[in-house]
Write a structure and sequence with these properties.
alpha+beta, three-stranded antiparallel beta sheet, 4 helices, 12 strands
């Protein structure tokens, strides 16, 4: 079946309506740290734990990830809004890492110390498609933080999601028996 392809600008406009969690993808190879803000991240499997990370091939970080075969997915909280902007192009290169406290786990990829969660990954597979590469990362370490509200991106701007954080504070809901 041959169908007309939707124009890129229409696709982008429609995708802006999809709220997504904001992450900073980081990597390091031969001492060069790179990173970018991304929303195109999702779980692939729990056993073994793997993530899909989609990165535009035009970014500097893309090439460093390819060479170093490691990456870290840092899930951002609302308090990281400015940092998301730095890694989305507000700053370049090593200057991006001047904000926030950065450490490492098992790979050399930078880990944001106060991220809601950080997934330290070894790249196991890559798939190139159109302008992006899909990196399949096997999670080799995780750092969790309990506090904070997730940062979301929708409609071209950042926003917080209070509902999830508020639910954690309430007692668990029990099922009501059916009659």
């Amino acid at each position: 079946m041959n169908a007309d392809i939707v124009p890129a600008d229409v696709f982008k406009l429609a995708m802006r309506r999809l709220a997504a969690g904001v992450t900073i993808i980081t990597t390091c190879h031969d001492g060069e740290r790179c990173g970018l803000t991304a929303t195109a991240v999702c779980s692939l499997s729990a056993d073994p734990p793997q993530l899909l990370v989609c990165v535009n091939r035009s970014t500097r970080a893309h090439d460093v990830i390819r060479r170093g075969a490691n990456l870290c997915v840092n899930l951002l909280a609302r308090r990281h809004k400015a940092l998301a902007g730095h890694f989305a192009g507000g700053r370049k290169g090593e200057e991006r890492f001047r904000s926030g406290k950065w450490t490492t786990l098992k790979t050399s990829a930078p880990v944001l110390d106060d991220a809601l969660a950080s997934f330290d990954c070894v790249v196991k597979e890559t798939v190139e498609s159109a302008t992006h590469t899909i990196f399949i990362g096997q999670v080799v370490d995780v750092r969790l933080r309990a506090e904070g509200h997730p940062l979301l991106y929708a409609g071209g701007s950042y926003a917080g999601l209070q509902v999830i954080a508020d639910r954690r504070k309430r007692a668990p809901v029990t099922a009501v028996p059916r009659r």
